[in-house]
Design a protein that fits this description.
With about 1000 residues, the protein is of the alpha/beta class. Among the domains are: about 5-145, tt1808, chain A (Alpha-Beta Complex); about 145-320, no CATH class; about 620-700, no CATH class; about 705-975, no CATH class. Strand 5 (about 110-115) and strand 6 (about 120-125) form a beta hairpin. Helix 4 crosses helix 11 (about 300-310), helix 13 packs parallel to helix 22 (about 580-585) and helix 20 (about 485-495) packs parallel to helix 21 (about 515-525).
């Protein structure tokens, strides 16, 4: 017995044949029938699926018959009739339902005809089967429109914006000087505005500037058209269909919605009537409302804005203003966190100082409105009052006019979700959200005037970063950094009253970077740090931004404050645990469900971060060296040092090894004899009841210097044949190994050859390429960092011709591709190289003794004899832990950070043992052996010397797994074997 037909097959095989053969309905391939679509019904809020609707003509899609199909073996029931009529009265067909309905299981057909009552409402009565000719002649129902998904809506709006831009370019762009006075005044006003907050170099006679202005005008019109489309889609609010006269309709709504529909001076450049008709033809057959108004899982208006500005290469305001889309999961988590610390949203005042496309604002608005609505949702008046209170207690700011426009639109759609709300909020017909979402510069002088005494309980959001501010703004906030997000933090701290909150997404660069020291000082002196949450570097889609979530409370009670530092570095947005880590942070949960290798939580006493100081300038150390006879800096030289305030996690006990200040009973100043050096002022750290471990800072026993910068120019550089260069160095050619000078032979070069270059007679056989210490290509396939020693990856052309070219590039008159020959007095010295850039930096190896670079810097000990001891310690696990947690958190290790590295003062036995083992390990590496057992022995020697507890050793190991989750991951064995064989052949 054959299986009964389901609904779709019943419609295809039976119902359609019945309509076509018996009642004359058109064939399916002619496009009169639209099958399977979503509809929001009269009875419920959720979208349902109807089966088919017949249109009077394919292009205009005017409905004449709605069909609900049932499976072949289903007996038709009254509830099926109710379902069908709910579809007919639903929003898709409002305000007038289709003339005819059909309910069928393929053998039984129940027809209904629309009837209008005296009350002007409609009902359906049963009727006989309706022929196509009769159906076409009926009074039509409401306009049927295909509902677009959000992705489809963005695609269509991109096309509309492109069309408007092309129209504007044809009208104005080809000869901007000859346009009429009104349009010219608008153009000049837009250009002046963009010069003020984007680029002062934009000029009216520059084609790129003209395109940028016209692109922004096209964006403004597109957003207004979008708003017009939404309010016409919803229909019952306005009783309007999408108008054919778009420009006049925008003007009509301008007084009612000035913040959205008026955008002077952008309104002065207008597209043509022809484009107006084209836009109407594009938009009248479709609906946006379902995707934009009723979707709760995202900020669709923000997504549309982000999609639009990404579509035009002339949208320079996006990059210039640091607009970055905040993922929904992060927005939700931050709002959950805020809700917890505020104990709910009711009667709280919220400020978003860089609202962008409104992702935070819409989420906050929704929550505040619900908090202000009485339990059980209340009556209509209660809901209106909840909206009024929410609008009173919410403010958002952005310098970008398009950002404020879209954010206002997002709030307006929150009002549209409940019928009649906006009309009751604005009985005079004017609804100006420009007082809620304010166009202003958060860093400007006019902010207080714009806010008019609004005092936020919490400031929340994602300020722009990667954007430089002017020197005037830097000086106003006294931060010594041009990065905008630091200025936003400082400004918002000043706006807060005591015990009020700041909750921001910030780049993790501010946690330890030198150029944000003043920002950290302001934070630690005026606020109580409450929480720092480290996220995956790619937590923002398609961006590598290393974000953190930071919570501060304005207060002057700091001495007893502790903050929570949570680390979810290895958990990417594609990981199932990503949302779980955000929820743990947001909830403040104390349990440790996730393994510490995935998520760690530390409690830090805020006053402890004051115990690290800046190192003295290198020139002062050099002067002290002369006094000491070239052995060491014998004094701490910290009289003029400044507090660094690193905002960090990790083990507080291990952080004490980095201290530059005495702490009673825990850290003491001592004068210590360092092997091969004179006495050095040190800090002894109490590790157990009976053991004090002394430490000096690296700047006290060694120079740390940057070298030559050539911008990775393939004119000078070559790579060894086995090196797979990264994308930035992909144009660098392989070196001719016959023309290289090995490290052991560099001592044979004369003083003039080292200074002026090597004379080359035969470029194919003369030796003139010397080793170049720079950031080598990291290869973690074997589960080990580069350390101690590795073959030369890169070589530099040190011919007289090349050196002469370098010196010419070094002149100030050559700003393009300029070379910087720093610290030449240290060229051609054997020392310790450290790579300071990249995820795995710093990495330490014995240098090659040639030229060193700005990224492959040198550590030059004051006494050569201590080099192996220093190298041994710097390559240990504990050294890396201290550096990446307490010295330099980010991927770019600063010279000043390395100078402050704590170095344990060794006993003679430890010094001799480590020195010998490092020499042995380097020889093993040169012979092609890893010598991993020796490296592990060195690790254990220092762990014992510092007296690491078992808990601290476990902490270091779990931190390694968290920081480098891909370290040592299995790679393609064949590729590894081929690479190893190739390297062996080349070396031979």
């Amino acid at each position: 017995m054959p299986k009964p037909l389901n609904e779709a097959d019943t419609f295809s095989r039976k119902i359609y044949k019945y309509l076509e053969r018996e009642l004359g309905y058109p064939k399916r391939d002619l496009g009169y029938c639209h099958e399977q679509g979503a509809i929001r019904t009269k009875a419920g809020k959720h979208a349902k699926r109807w089966d088919a609707v017949f249109m009077i003509e394919p292009k205009r899609e005017l409905p004449v018959l709605l069909v609900e199909a049932k499976a072949e073996n289903v007996k038709l029931k009254p509830k099926d009739i109710t379902q069908l009529q709910n579809y007919a009265f639903g929003e898709r067909f409002a305000p007038v339902p289709p003339p005819y309905l059909l309910l069928s299981n393929g053998s039984e057909h129940i027809w209904f005809k629309r009837k209008q009552l005296d009350s002007k409402d409609f009902e359906y009565c049963r009727c006989e089967g309706v022929k196509w000719k009769t159906a076409k002649a009926a009074q039509l129902g409401g306009q049927f429109r295909a509902t677009l998904t959000l992705k489809q809506a963005i695609k269509l709006l991109k096309n509309i914006r492109k069309g408007i831009y092309s129209d504007l370019w044809n009208s104005y762009g080809s000869n901007i000087s000859k346009i009429d006075n009104k349009a010219k005044a608008s153009f000049e006003a837009i250009l002046k505005t963009r010069q003020s907050f984007i680029n002062p170099e934009l000029k009216a006679d520059n084609e790129r500037s003209v395109k940028a202005v016209l692109s922004s005008v096209a964006l403004s019109w597109t957003l207004k058209i979008l708003f017009l489309k939404i309010i016409s889609d919803i229909g019952s609010e306005t009783d309007d269909e999408f108008p054919s006269k778009i420009l006049s309709s925008i003007g009509k709504y301008g007084d009612a919605f000035p913040g959205i529909m008026k955008a002077a001076p952008y309104d002065g450049l207008v597209f043509s009537k022809k484009t107006e008709g084209w836009i109407f033809d594009q938009l009248v057959p479709v609906r946006f409302a379902e995707a934009l108004v009723y979707e709760d899982s995202q900020n669709p208006i923000g997504a549309i804005y982000d999609g639009l500005v990404d579509s035009e290469k002339h949208d320079i305001q996006v990059k210039s203003l640091g607009n970055v889309y905040t993922p929904e999961s992060i927005v939700v988590a931050m709002c959950d966190y805020a809700e917890r610390i505020l104990n709910g949203w009711k009667d709280k005042k919220i400020l978003e100082p860089a609202c962008g496309s409104g992702h935070f604002v819409r989420e906050v608005y929704r929550r505040m409105r619900l908090a202000n609505t009485p339990e059980g949702d209340g009556d209509k008046n209660d809901i209106v009052q909840a909206h009024k209170k929410t609008l009173l207690n919410l403010r958002a700011i952005d310098i970008d006019p398009f950002a404020t426009q879209t954010t206002q639109l997002g709030i307006f759609l929150e009002l549209f979700k409940e019928r009649g709300v906006w009309k009751r909020l604005a009985p005079n017909g004017i609804f100006d959200l420009g007082k809620i979402v304010i166009k202003a510069d958060t860093l400007g002088d006019e902010l207080e005037v714009k806010l008019k005494g609004f005092e936020p309980t919490i400031i929340i959001g994602n300020p722009p970063y990667g954007v430089g501010v002017t020197e005037e703004v830097q000086n106003r906030f006294g931060l010594g950094s041009s990065d905008s997000y630091g200025c936003f933090v400082a400004r918002c701290i000043d706006l807060l009253a005591k015990d009020d909150h700041l909750l921001f997404v910030l780049s993790s660069s501010f946690l330890t970077a030198k150029n944000h020291r003043e920002l950290r000082q302001k934070i630690c002196r005026t606020t109580a740090l409450r929480s720092i949450h480290i996220m995956h570097r790619n937590a923002f889609a398609r961006r590598d931004v290393f974000p953190t979530l930071v919570h501060l409370t304005k207060t002057d009670d700091l001495e007893e404050n502790h903050y929570i530092f949570t680390d979810a570095w290895p958990v990417s947005p594609n990981d199932t645990d990503f949302t779980a880590t955000l929820k743990k942070w947001a909830s403040g949960a104390s349990d440790q469900e996730l393994p510490r290798s995935r998520f760690a939580k530390y409690e830090w006493p805020q006053p402890l971060v004051r115990f690290r100081l800046t190192a003295p300038p290198a020139n002062q150390v050099d002067e002290e060296m002369e006094k000491s006879g070239g052995k060491s800096a014998t004094h701490l030289l910290l009289a003029n040092a400044k507090e660094i305030y690193p905002l960090i996690g990790g083990s507080p006990a291990l952080f004490l090894t980095c201290s530059d200040i005495e702490i009673t009973g825990r850290v003491q100043k001592r004068t210590i004899e360092f092997p091969s050096l004179k006495e050095v002022d040190a800090f002894a750290v109490k590790r157990t009841d009976s053991v004090w471990a002394p430490f000096v800072k690296l700047w006290q026993i060694a120079h740390v210097r940057q070298g030559l910068s050539t911008a990775d120019d393939p004119c000078f550089l070559r790579k060894s044949p086995w090196v797979v260069a990264n994308a930035r160095r992909r144009n660098i050619k392989n070196v001719n190994m016959n023309c290289t000078i090995e490290s052991a032979n560099l001592a044979g070069l004369s003083k003039d050859q080292k200074k002026l270059g090597i004379e080359v007679l035969d470029p194919q056989s003369d030796k003139y390429f010397i080793p170049f210490d720079k950031g080598g290509e990291q290869n973690t396939e074997e589960g080990e960092f580069r350390s101690f020693w590795s073959p030369v990856d890169y070589w530099i052309d040190w011919s007289q011709k090349s050196v002469n070219k370098l010196r010419k590039r070094a002149l100030p008159s050559n700003p393009k591709n300029r070379a910087y020959l720093r610290n030449e007095q240290f060229y051609f010295q054997m020392a310790i190289r450290f790579t300071r850039a990249g995820l795995y930096a710093p990495m330490y190896e014995q240098s090659f003794g040639g030229i060193f670079s700005d990224k492959g810097c040198l550590i030059i000990p004051f006494e050569t004899a201590i080099s192996n001891y220093l190298l041994g310690y710097l390559c240990t696990d504990v050294s890396r832990y201290l550096c990446k947690n307490f010295i330099q958190h980010g991927v770019m290790t600063e010279i000043e950070g390395i100078r402050q590295m704590p170095i344990p003062v060794p006993s003679k036995e430890l010094y001799d043992t480590v020195t010998a083992k490092v020499a042995l390990l380097i020889e093993e590496r040169k012979r092609g052996n890893r010598g991993s057992s020796i490296e592990e022995e060195i690790n254990k020697l220092f762990a014992a010397h510092i007296v690491l507890s078992k808990v601290e050793e476990e902490e270091i190991q779990t931190w390694f797994k968290r920081r480098y989750p891909d370290f040592g991951r299995e790679k393609d064995a064949t590729r590894k074997a081929e690479k190893a064989a190739r390297r062996k052949v080349i070396k031979t």
